[in-house]
Amino acid sequence: MTHLPRTPRTPQTGEAAEAPEPAAPGRRPAPDRILVVEDSPEDAEAIERALRRTHPDLVLEFTARGQGLAADLLSREELPGLILLDLNMPGTDGHTVLEQIRSHPELGAVTVVVFTSSTAPAEVDACFAAGADSYVYKPVNFALFQTVLKGAVDYWRQAGSGAGSGAASVK
Amino acid sequence: MGRVEGGAGADPESWAAGLHRMWQAAQDAEDITDMARHVYALMLAERDVVAVTGSRWEGRSLRYVRRLTAGDGSAATTTPPAGSVRTVPARLPAQDGAEAGDRAPVRLFAYDLAADDAAFAPEAALLAEAGARWALEARFALGGDDWAAFSLGVSRRQDAGSALPGRLLQLGEVLVAGNRRVLEHRAAERRRVEEAFLAEASLQMDASLDERETLERIARLAVPAVAEACVVHLCRPGGRLSPVASVHVAAAVQPWLRGVAADDPWLGEALRAAARRPEGTLITGEALGASAFGPRSEGPGREVRAVTISPLRARGKLLGTLTFVYHRPERDIVDLRVQDDLARRAALAIDTTSAYEQRRRNAEQLQRHLLPGKLPDWPGAELTAAYEVADDSLEVGGDFYDAVVRRDGGLALFVGDVCGRGAEAAALAGLARHTLRVLLEDKVPPGEALRRLNSVLTGQQTARFVTAFVAVLTPDGDGHTVEAASAGHPRPLLRRADGRVEEVRASGLLLGIVPETLYEPRTAVLEPGDALVMFTDGLSEARSADGTMFESLLPEAVRECCAGDGDAAAGLIARAAAFRALGDDDTAVLVARVAGGIVEETQ
Questions:
Q1: What is the CATH number of the domain that holds A89?
Q2: How many CB atoms lie within 10 A of CB B273?
Q3: Which end of chain B is more exposed for a tag (fewer CB within 10 A), N or C?
Q4: CA distance B140 to B425
Q5: What is the secondary structure of B128-159 as a DSSP string?
């Protein structure tokens, strides 16, 4: 698969030079890493611009293809805390990527936010049934686009960092 | 201390250049904290300045304090836990209503650091520690509870001729102006977001005519753009508020939210109270304490900071409520007028949708009454009928058909078409159908039935005309004699058992135009296995993209559809529908196939 890392991965030290081991089940992903799965270069650029403004400390990684994504994640040393997933992609579409990710319990702690331009209830239901954590509408206007992304990322980062005062856990 | 006496900053020209840099920085700053670097550098270059501090406050509570001493590379920032460091009330910048002099954007204060002055903590200690003996403070309000102080620790008392107080005042004013620009920029950005949100919401409202789907789409759009959760309730008969859409940013929390929306007593009471008010209601803090959104609830796994409820009201009528639930900090909660605006737009959309739904139901019901619920069982022939509405419009079509067993045991069949659509066409179609039924049941012959219907219609003084074809089947040996009459209606087709297709050549003037018109009957014979195919012009005049009429293919279609045991009427409608690219007339087809005989298969 083609990764277009906009931010270099954290340099590995010492023992990390060895072959990466499969992610351990239930391992906590890094809340500050976001993987964006988006085939449209314009949307990917808008996501990057928006998140750079609202969350300059986030480590962003982009890929335009869903094929092999779950397998790639399983081989990783560090999992992203959140995957921002576009639904309409050529080849392996977002629904399939979602199903593949959710078929691996080892990736269960990774938050998957579907970010798409449809608000059709049937589409939302299908994504929730397949294990999406959030379904977020992708607006056309950039200012609103940025607000929506900020809302989603703020919510899940707080969840990932264990913040919050309620009794029940959202993940 | 590493400070250079009489530094470059003491030079008025260098000061002017530094101040200019400050103005430029103020234009790009996202927050006045971004300007701190320039401010510190500029003041530390001034004669006698030992250290500088910047403090930012929320009411009496210190948010952070920074200190930079001459020669230091970077500022040391202390951020105490919220509320742990508080200042005296006297230090708060003046509010509106204070003396004019107190409301100046920037106010200067001088301190002797040897004296213990509670009104200058914690800066006094920080500056004294850095070696300062005296201090000058510029204090300014930044909007709401937000205020800041920028202070200089100096080595000697500043006399009346000193440039330092004036320069500190200038810097303070640049900071205040920069902050004003930042606030205006933020407000404009927020307005842009609000406008874009309302515009997108309006688009969603047009996406569907289904009420529930429309509301789910709006709620989905609003989360997390406006809040982390959104619930829509609609008024049901008896005034009960019933939830129709519940959306939370976390899929896992949605079931909990749905439950609260459906039967939480606290929310029910809050909704009823909010629905009575003209504007939206904001519920925060302790008012949420005892609710399902309060800290003791087994709730959403996250603190709820606020709940807003806006009434859904259109054309003076309360339709329901729009509720938002916020986990975000209070400063990120958009102005309640946005929720109210969204509620108003949504209410109008719902009202329009339900009006449309009501009209659609009325049209459907009316259309059903124009057509027979069930065709009669008649031993001599098998009857099939089909009707296709041209589009999903709210107008009722004017096509009608029916079959009635006469008192003499014969079977009367008819099909007709009132020109145009809508209430008047439907009323005339109903009148024509029931008139023909009554007459034909009473053994009135087809030509006479049409003559009497014509009298009725011409008496209606309508500009609409009606076409109709009537046939009466009377058993005769193995087959039937057919007596038929037509009033300007497309000629029916006779499909013989051997596959031949003939027209029934009955003709006559349209109904409803010329009083006292006579309709000449024609007769034919139906043998076992023959079929009589009656239809309206929606079938014959269906056109393909190149303009070809289905009429030219009709004999072949009739030949094939009436072979075998299938539903001949439905078969013909389906073929015309597949063929049709142009034309949007309703279509009715009624087929009577005489029992017995060997029907030639033409597959």
A1: 3.40.50.2300
A2: 12
A3: C
A4: 76
A5: HHTT-SEEEEEEEEEETTEEEEEEEEESS---
For chain A, the straight-line distance linking the first and the last C-alpha, in angstroms and rounded, comes to 29
User: What range defines the domain where residue A117 resides?
Assistant: 24-160
Q: Which CATH superfamily is domain B8-185 in?
A: GAF domain (3.30.450.40)
Give the pLDDT of residue B272. 94
Stated as kind and residue range, the H or E segment containing B185 is helix B164-205
- Work out the pLDDT band at B509, boundaries 50, 70, 90: very high
Looking at the structure of chain A, the number of domains it has is 1
Whether A134 and B253 lie within 8 Å, measured CB to CB = no
Tell me what pLDDT residue A12 has: 35
Of A120, A139, A154, the CB nearest to B196: A139
Q: What contacts B362, CB < 8 A, 6 or more positions away?
A: none
CATH number, span B371-594 = 3.60.40.10
| Alpha carbon distance B287, B268 (integer Å) | 15
Which pLDDT value is given to residue B397? 79
Where in the sequence of chain B do the CATH 3.60.40.10 domains occur? 371-594
Q: Is A93 on the interface with B (CB under 8 A)?
A: no
**Interface contact B302-A166, CB threshold 8 A:** yes
Residue in the structure block whose two tokens are 């805390």: A81
| Residues from chain B contacting residue A165 (CB–CB below 8 Å) | 295, 302-303
Rounded Cα gap, residues B251 and B34, in angstroms: 38
pLDDT in tens, B278-298: 999 999 888 888 788 887 676
Domain for residue A75, yes or no?
Answer: yes
In a domain, A65, yes or no: yes
Is B196 close to A171, i.e. CB distance below 8 A?
no
| Residue A79 within a domain | yes
Q: Which of B382, B513, B403 is nearest to B469 (CA)?
A: B403
Distances, alpha carbon B219 to alpha carbons A170, B19, B154, B212, in Å: 20, 50, 58, 11
Distance of CA A117 to the CA centre of its chain: 17
Task: Please give the ipTM for the structure prediction.
Answer: 0.82
B198: closest chain A residue by CA = A144
Chain B residues in contact with A144 by the CB 8 A cut-off are 193, 196-197, 200, 225
Which of B196, B217, B228 has the CB atom closest to A119's CB atom?
Answer: B217
pLDDT on residue B249: 95
Average pLDDT, chain A: 80
Q: Mean pLDDT over residues B52-59, rounded?
A: 92
- For the domain bounded by B206-363, which CATH number is listed? 3.30.450.40
Give ∠ CA A92-A95-A96 in degrees, rounded to 5.
Answer: 45
- For B308-344, the pLDDT digits (tens) are 999 999 988 999 999 999 998 877 888 888 899 989 9
User: Chain B residue with minimal CA distance to A135?
Assistant: B249
* Residue A101: inside a domain: yes
Interchain pair A121, B253: CB under 8 A: no
State whether A151 and B199 contact (CB < 8 Å). Answer: no
With H, G, I as helix, E, B as strand and everything else as coil, classify residue B426: helix
Determine the pLDDT at residue B7: 39
